[in-house]
Specification:
It contains 7 helices and 18 strands. With 367 residues, it is an alpha+beta fold. A hairpin with a 2-residue loop joins strand 15 and strand 16 (325-335). Helix 1 packs across helix 6 (177-187) and helix 3 runs antiparallel to helix 4 (99-118).
């Protein structure tokens, strides 16, 4: 129970279905892991992402209304090692991480599920918008998109294993967000109208560079900004970790045409800018592959693929190249395919599987 409306309603629905439940809120970071931020220029009031004391109190309030025990579990150490450190490591290597996926993979559906079984509970229930179904013919648990396409979170859940899917329930999978809020209001939940969290919880102001420098004690040095194709020097960047592929704003470069971050090189600490066409590519490789709908992709498979959470999936061919590696080629070039992000494969509403983008084939860029 994060303190938000979704997990609160999920708890109510499970209780309505006759399950014995307890509510659990995770403490994922402490003051040493957070970079304080402030609203306005002089208010001096620190703000945080999710998992704040206010969130804990909201979760406890809902649990009390539901006559359900509530506990706070301290997972700060594994969160620091498995999420924050990975986040920083990927940025330092030139990629763009997705810490929400790592949190799901290593914290919520690994350590928390293990803790649940230690406490003799059979299932882990969350407020994610997705669906789980059993396919008897294939003998597999399937992960499917939510009924509410605007809230679907199957993209960040592709890492779930068969054992985890068997022991997980998503009660909101068939509901819309408006229906969830209506249930919360009918129940008198304190968080019925609480806004959704939009930011990475441990970097609520979105300043990843400042967070990493404060957390690690490192200084990420300035370097050259160069032009796509020509290699012409355009200016100086403020540290390579502060830039992501496809970025347009905050570059400090004045040109007659829009320029975007087309590439980053950690080896020589350069950021390359190019026109919109330089962002497009068709093929890439995937590592750390997790397949859900099948054991293995035996031959090239026609699927739809998305490489960003908000992207509409596009037609592609996927070919498994190793035990946990994959090559994907889109039918049409796609914008800003980014190492470190997840590529998730879909067959209709069913998640075939997914993995981490490791390398991009840029030969199809539109010049």
């Amino acid at each position: 129970m994060s303190g938000g409306v979704d997990s609160s309603v999920a708890a109510a629905l499970m209780l309505n279905s006759g399950y014995d439940c307890i509510g659990v809120t995770l403490k994922l970071y402490d003051g040493d892991d957070m970079v304080p931020i402030h609203r306005g220029c002089c208010s001096g009031t620190p703000t945080r992402g999710c998992c704040s004391l206010e969130d804990v109190n909201d979760a406890r309030n809902v649990a009390y209304r539901l006559n359900m025990a509530h506990y706070v579990l301290n997972f700060t150490e594994p969160f620091r090692d498995e999420v924050i450190r990975r986040f920083i490591d990927i940025y330092e290597k030139g990629g763009t991480p997705n810490p929400c996926i790592d949190c799901n993979r290593y914290i919520k559906f690994e350590r928390l599920l293990y803790r649940a079984r230690q406490l003799d509970f059979d299932l882990l229930v969350t407020g994610h918008y997705a669906r789980i179904e059993r396919d008897g013919a294939r003998g597999r648990w399937l992960l499917k998109k939510a009924a509410d396409a605007k809230k679907d979170q199957s993209y960040v859940l592709y890492c779930l294993t068969q054992e985890q899917l068997e022991r997980t329930r998503f009660p909101l999978g068939d509901l819309t967000k408006s229906q969830v809020r209506e249930i919360a209001e009918e129940r008198g939940f304190i968080n019925a109208k609480k806004r959704d969290s939009q930011d990475i919880c441990f970097v609520p102001d979105g300043d990843y560079g400042r967070f990493m420098e404060t957390w690690t004690g490192k200084h990420y040095p300035e370097g050259n900004i160069i032009e796509y194709h020509t290699g012409k020097l355009l200016g100086t960047h403020r540290g390579i970790v502060r830039y992501t592929l496809g970025q347009r704003r905050g570059l400090g470069i004045a040109r007659n045409e829009p320029m975007y971050v087309a590439a980053k090189s950690v080896a020589d600490n350069t950021v390359t800018l190019g026109p919109a066409g330089s962002l497009y590519s068709k093929a890439f490789t995937v590592e750390a592959l997790n397949l859900i709908a099948c054991e293995r992709i035996e031959s090239p498979l026609r699927v739809k693929v998305k490489t960003r959470y908000q992207q509409q999936e596009q037609w592609a061919a996927a070919e498994q190249t190793g035990e946990d590696t994959l090559r994907v080629e889109f039918d049409e070039p796609q914008r800003a395919i980014t190492p470190g992000q997840a590529a998730v494969l879909y067959d209709g509403d069913v998640v075939v599987g997914g993995g981490t983008i490791s390398a991009i084939d840029t030969k199809n860029a539109i010049n």
